[in-house]
Each structure stands twice: as C-alpha cells, then as structure tokens.
Automatic annotation (TrEMBL):
It comes from the Bacteria. It is found in: Cell membrane. GO terms for cellular component: plasma membrane. The keyword Translocase does not apply. Keywords: Cell membrane, Membrane, Transmembrane, Transmembrane helix. It is a multi-pass membrane protein. Pfam families: ATP-synt_I. The chain crosses the membrane at residues 12-28, 34-53, 74-91, 97-120. This is ATP synthase subunit I.
Length: 125
C-alpha cells in the first residue's frame, strides 16, 4: 500500500503542476473558455482520482478483514463528470465543452505516463 500512496502523491503533484499552467493560460491568454474548461475538468479529474484512491484503501482494509465491499464508487465519479459536462453545456460562453472532457481524462493520462516513467526507471537499475 505504501507504493500505491507514493504513486498517488506523485501523480497528484503532476496534476497540480498542470493546473498551475492552466491557470496561467487562463489569466494571460485570450483563450479563457478553453483554459477554464481544462481547469474544471482537471480539478474534477483530480477529485475522482482522490475518490478512487480512498475507495481502494477502504477495499484493502475490508479484504484484510475478510469482508465484502459493494463498489469502488463508480456512481460518484460519474456524477462528478456529468456535473462538469452540464456546467459546460449550461455556460458555453465561459466553459469550453471539449476542454472539460479533455480535463476529465487528465488523471488517466497522468497515470499512464507515470507508469511508463516508472517502468523505464526500474529497467535502468
């Protein structure tokens, strides 16, 4: 579990760096709806990643005790994604829809890139 928590900490740091870049893009460019969509989607993507990590921790604890767990929180993560898309549809002049969808996929991209980096680093040793 310790390796899992360090992986989450590393990925969270990468996503926060991306969010900082998006905020700078929102503040200093004329593409404010696009960057606001990226900010919204990436923020909810980070929230969904945090929810998943929390549920996996709970799952591990329940399995150690020999119990059963209903789900890993798919409905709450989907509800957050639907909320972001509904905001983009309701306020298209402020939030770009495609950017929200790209932002929602950010944590999955960061997980894959981080996994490849760790794989290459482990092969070098």
């Amino acid at each position: 579990m310790l390796q899992f928590k360090t992986m989450f900490t590393r990925e969270r740091k990468y996503i926060v760096y991306l969010l900082a870049i998006y905020v700078l893009g929102w503040g200093f460019t004329s593409y404010q709806p696009i960057f606001l969509g990226l900010i919204l989607g990436t923020t909810l993507s980070l929230f969904n990643l945090w929810l998943l990590v929390r549920k996996i921790d709970q799952f591990g604890e329940v399995m150690e005790k020999g119990g059963k767990m209903r789900s890993l929180g798919l409905m709450s993560r989907m509800a957050a994604a639907i909320f972001a898309v509904l905001l983009a549809v309701e306020y298209p002049e402020y939030i770009h829809l495609i950017s929200v969808v790209i932002g929602l996929m950010t944590s999955y991209l960061v997980i894959m890139i981080d996994s490849f980096i760790q794989l290459f680093q482990s092969q070098k040793k």
